[in-house]
Design brief:
185 residues, single chain, mainly alpha
Length: 185
């Protein structure tokens, strides 16, 4: 617990320091060029001008989103929803929010495509992790890897062993957890 508190405090202090540094000199940020490009392509000048206010339409869209999150929790907890149902709910919520928000059909489709572009990298990472799990499971090498890691964990005191177990489990979960959650099918 103490280790977690110290790590969290160090991380918060560093993030505040770095955020202030980037605010003072935005060009040092590794995202500076990408942010500038996004600012050019987005309509921030229209969204954040003084004539634009939080209208009833905005409140209804926000309420639709909040209701969708409530529906998500109910679906997962009580109806045993999984990826397919959650994905469908978010797709329907996005379409309804776009319609309520006053987007025309072509604007709605363009927004969906632009949002999907941002997720392609994530989908690729998930696919690679799943492929790694399938190869490891079908090749029957997961047990061999765990057996090989056992001496690394056993060779130290219980306090250090727990820390090593956490590190090993984190590395394994990075590659294998995506497939392990799929056991309901």
């Amino acid at each position: 617990m103490i280790s977690w508190a110290i790590s969290t405090i160090v991380a918060i202090v560093f993030l505040i320091y770095y955020a202030n540094k980037v605010l003072a000199k935005p060009k040092i940020s590794p995202m500076y060029l990408e942010d500038n490009e996004r600012r050019k392509n987005e309509r921030f000048d229209q969204i954040y001008d003084d004539n634009n206010h939080f209208s009833l339409r905005h409140k209804i869209v926000l309420s639709t989103f909040a209701l969708s999150l409530i529906m998500l929790v109910v679906g997962v907890v009580y109806l045993n929803w999984y990826i397919e149902e959650i994905s469908a709910m978010f797709l329907i919520m996005g379409i309804i929010a776009g319609i309520i928000g006053g987007l025309k059909t072509d604007e709605l489709i363009k927004s969906f495509i632009d949002g999907a572009k941002d997720l392609v990298g994530t989908a690729l990472i998930i696919a690679l992790a799943r492929a790694t799990l399938v190869i490891s499971r079908d090749g029957q090498i997961i047990d061999t890897v765990l057996y090989g890691l056992a001496p690394f964990i056993q060779s130290s005191s219980p306090i250090f062993a727990s820390q090593k177990m956490f590190i090993v489990q984190s590395i394994i979960n990075f590659f294998c957890a995506l497939g392990e959650a799929d056991k309901r099918h």
